[in-house]
Amino acid sequence: MRIVMGILVAYLLLNVLVVAFFMDKILMKTFPGQDPLQTFNSFILYYFLMDLIMRFQLQELPTLSIRPYLHLPISKNQIANYLSLTSLATAFNLTPFLLTIPFLVKVLIPQYGVGAFWSYILAIFALTMHNHFFSLWLKRKVNLNAYWMLGFFALLLLVWALEFYFKVISISNVSKELFSAVIKNFLLSPMLLGIGLAAFLTNHNYLKSNLYLEELETSKTSAKSSTEIPYLNRFGLVGDLAANELKLILRNKRPRSVLVMCLMFMLYGLIFYNNPKYDGYGHIVFCGMFMTGIFIINYGQFMFSWQSAHFDGILTSRIQAEDFFKSKFLIFDVLSTFCFLLTIPYVYFGWKVIIVHLIMYVWNLGVNTILVLYFANQNYKRIDLSKGGSFNWEGVGASQWILSIPLLITPFLIYLPLSYFDYPKIGLAAIAIIGMIFIFSREFWLNKLVAIFNTKRYTIAEGFRKE
Questions:
Q1: Alpha helical stretches, state H, 252-320
Q2: pTM of the entire structure?
Q3: To which H or E segment does residue 96 belong?
Q4: Which of 310, 158, 319 is nearest to 240 (CA)?
Q5: Which of 187, 198, 299, 383 is 20 to 30 A (C-alpha) from 333?
Q6: What are phi and psi of 10, to 5 degrees?
Q7: Which UniProt keywords apply (predicted)?
Q8: CA 42 remoteness from chain centre
Q9: Burial degree of 390 (CB within 10 A; 0-12, 13-18, 19+)
C-alpha cells in the first residue's frame, strides 16, 4: 500500500510540475490580454484557502506515545519540536513550490530579477508554513470539541458570502496587491514569515501544554461532555444511542472525514446554479438530493460497519433491535435537517431551488433512509475507525456499489418520464408524495428491517470479526 500510495503521490506531483511549466501559456489562453504574472498573483490566496480546506480533510496528525518519554531526561519542548518538525514531511508542503517555481523562473525572473524571485518564494514558504501548522492545531482542537469544526466552516461560509454574495471583499484583488508588493519590496516577505511563525508557536505551545498523562490518557467525566446534545435526551434510549454514535463520528478519523465531506458538499450547488445552461428542474433535483441527503448516502453506505469493533457488545446488550434502528433514523433526520438548513441561502437563485431542495429532503428522509438501512443488513465488511478516509477502501464491498444505483436513479425514474412530456412539476409532486408516504409508513418499514436484521445479525457479526 505504501508503494502504491508513493507512486500515486509522485504521479500527482508530476502533473502539478507539468501544469506549472505551462502555466504562462494556460493563463494567456484563459485570460487573453492580461498580464499572466498579475493573473497568477490574483489566484495565490484562493489556492492557499483551498489548500487549508484540503489539509483539514486529508492531512494526518503526527502521533507519538508519550508515556515512555515523560520519565526520561527529555524535555517537553524537545518532544513538541519533534512532533512539529516530523510533520513537515508531506506532499502538501511540496506542492506550492512545484506549482510556482517553474512559472516564476519563466516569467518573473526575466522581468524583475532573482531578488524578486526569492522574495516571492519566501512569501510562498510563509503561507505554506501557516497552513501546515494552523491545520494541525485546528484538527487537534476539533478532536476535543466539535464546535471548533463548526466555527471553522462557519468562517469559511462567511468569507464566501462576503466575497460572492455581498461583494464586500475581493480576495483576488487582495492577493494581486499583496504579491505585487512582494515582488517590488523584498522586506515584505520576512514580515509575512510572522504569520507562519505564529501558527508554529501556537501549535507548539498547544502540544507542550498537553504533554501530560492526565491530559492525554485519562478520560475525565463530568456532568456534561463537549459532545452532549440536550435535544436528543427527550428520545430516551434511542436518543442515547444516537448521541453515542454522534460521539463516535466526531472522535474517529474516518467517520469524521465523512462529516467534513458532507459539509463541503453544501457548496455543490454553486457548480450548477451559477451556470445559465442549467435552468431546468432536473439539475436542481440532482443537487438537492445530494446536498440534503449527502450524509445519508456517504455515512449510510457503511452503516453497521462503523460499529463493527463493538458490534458483538451491541448484540449481547439489552438494546432492542427496534431501538437500534430508530437511533439510525434519528441521526439521519437530525443531520439531514441540518444539511437542508445550510442550503437555504441558495434561495438567492430563486424560490424554486429551495422548494425542490425541500422535496428532495422529504425524499431522502422517506425513501433513502430505508434503502441504506436495508443494504446495511447485507454489509459484512469491517471498518477501522482510526484510519483516515483518504484512499481507504476498507469496508467497501458489493453492497456499496449496488446501493448507489437505487439511491441515485430512483427519483429520476419518477421525474424524467413526466418531465419528458412537459409535466416537471407533476414529477416533483410525485417525488414529494412518495417521500411523505414512506415517512408516514416508517413504522411498517422499521418492522421489516428489524425482521431482516434478526435473521442476519449473527452473519453480520461474524463478518465484522474477520480482519
A1: 253-264, 269-273, 282-300, 311-316
A2: 0.56
A3: helix 91-112
A4: 319
A5: 383
A6: -60, -40
A7: Membrane, Transmembrane, Transmembrane helix
A8: 26
A9: middle
